[in-house]
Inverse folding.
């Protein structure tokens, strides 16, 4: 089979547009670490800096914290996580159901948001973390729809 170099398939044009930066949302997805886009996350290690939430949904009306991972709690049906402050004090005796490694910058940005979001109904803490990371949220309106 001979391919005419002047005959470019539509899908190749779309890939080229992404490479040239014409589609910034897809470009953000391409630049996002794989584990952020999937359920696959690196395993937590003792001392990791994390965002932890009492429940998986990250409701800001439930307990949450930014702290350091200590160890898993395996006595529960689903593993929970012990999170401590810089002095080694537990934030919550029964652990947190979800914890994810964050950077120092992400932690600082989340801590700055605490007064606005703590104990107030609203978007999930995981949504806020994705926003800080610049990960496109599928539930947000597309700003470039009319282009």
């Amino acid at each position: 089979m001979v391919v005419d170099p002047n005959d470019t398939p539509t899908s190749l044009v779309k890939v080229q547009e992404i490479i040239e930066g014409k589609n910034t949302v897809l470009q953000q997805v391409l630049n996002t670490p794989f584990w952020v886009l999937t359920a696959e996350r690196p395993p937590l290690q003792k001392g990791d800096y994390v965002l932890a939430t009492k429940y998986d949904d990250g409701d800001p009306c439930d307990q949450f914290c930014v702290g350091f991972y200590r160890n898993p709690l395996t006595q529960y049906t689903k593993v929970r996580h012990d999170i401590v402050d810089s002095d080694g004090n537990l934030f919550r005796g029964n652990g947190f159901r979800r914890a994810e490694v964050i950077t120092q910058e992400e932690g600082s940005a989340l801590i700055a948001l605490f007064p606005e979001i703590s104990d107030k109904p609203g978007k999930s803490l995981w949504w806020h973390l994705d926003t800080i990371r610049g990960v496109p949220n599928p539930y947000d309106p597309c700003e470039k729809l009319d282009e």
Summary: Residues 1-5, 7-12, 34-38 have pLDDT under 50 and may be disordered. Residues 60 and 115 are 11 Å apart (CA to CA). The radius of gyration is 20 Å.
